[in-house]
Amino acid sequence: PSGPELVDDHVRPELRLIGEFGQSFPSGHAAGMLGFGLVLIGMLRRSPLKGRARAAAEYAVLAFALLMGASRLYLGVHYLTDVTAGWMLAIGGVGAGWWGVRRGDVAPWER
Questions:
Q1: Closest by CA position to 69, among listed 85, 92, 93
Q2: At what angle do helices 80-103 and 51-74 cross, to 10 degrees?
Q3: Does the CA dihedral 53-54-59-65 come out positive or negative?
Q4: Out of 26, 40, 73, 88, which residue is the most buried by the measure of CB atoms under 10 Å away?
């Protein structure tokens, strides 16, 4: 195990539809998909796509990311806390990245 999985030795649910092994906390699928979705939404905000078309694209990306988390619950490979922690990890990671990019408009040594 590596990264956040070292924090908690959380076992997977007993009843599951597919075979998954190892720790379940946090859900890497939920984290990765929401992180990708948030970055994609950020890119859409800077695209020439405007109005309802952009809103529809953003909602579709967000819905797909949330459905990924829901599928992990449905398949029985994660608990709700695992998926929620994955989503929070994604929000924190993308938020920190966004903050770093915004703060990095000027290199620290050039300020």
A1: 85
A2: 140
A3: positive
A4: 26
Query: What are the structure tokens assigned to 30, written together?
Result: 């939920």
Side chain identity, residue 111? R
Residue indicated by tokens 């649910």: 13
Q: What are phi and psi of 76, to 5 degrees?
A: 80, 20
Distances (CA, A) of 34 to 25, 48, 50: 16, 23, 22
What confidence tens digit (pLDDT) does each residue in 27-38 have?
A: 888 888 899 999
Which tens digit of pLDDT belongs to each residue from 65-105? 889 888 888 888 888 888 888 889 999 988 888 887 776 66
Tokens describing residue 65: 């990311």
Residue 27 burial (CB count, 10 A): 27
Contact criterion met (CB below 8 Å) for 90 and 28? no
As to burial, measured by CB atoms within 10 angstroms (0-12 exposed, 13-18 middle, 19+ buried), residue 52 is exposed
